[in-house]
Amino acid sequence: ILFQCLFFATSVAAWNGLEVITVEIYPSAKRCTAFGVLNGTCKLAAIIGSVIFAKFIGITKIIPILLAFAALACGGLLATKLPDTREKILE
């Protein structure tokens, strides 16, 4: 249970960090819309992920593990492509 709590705490912190970073890329006038779109996309992806996980868990347990690994690895690699906004004034 302790490891599961640690994993969930880490993943929630990582996802919240990614959401904040991606919203900060947009100018101030578009941030609310951007945050809403990203939040809606995340909710839809969570529903689709749960359905896919439930379908594959009955077949074999390695497929959901590999899918989760691929999603996290792709997200981490794509995060390196975000523009550097340090010391920039965002309008």
From TrEMBL:
<dbReference type="GO" id="GO:0043005">
    <property type="term" value="C:neuron projection"/>
</dbReference>
<keyword id="KW-1133">Transmembrane helix</keyword>
<keyword id="KW-0813">Transport</keyword>
<protein>
    <recommendedName>
        <fullName>Major facilitator superfamily (MFS) profile domain-containing protein</fullName>
    </recommendedName>
</protein>
<feature type="transmembrane region" description="Helical">
    <location>
        <begin position="62"/>
        <end position="80"/>
    </location>
</feature>
<keyword id="KW-0812">Transmembrane</keyword>
<feature type="transmembrane region" description="Helical">
    <location>
        <begin position="33"/>
        <end position="56"/>
    </location>
</feature>
<keyword id="KW-0472">Membrane</keyword>
<dbReference type="InterPro" id="IPR036259">
    <property type="entry name" value="MFS_trans_sf"/>
</dbReference>
<dbReference type="GO" id="GO:0030672">
    <property type="term" value="C:synaptic vesicle membrane"/>
</dbReference>
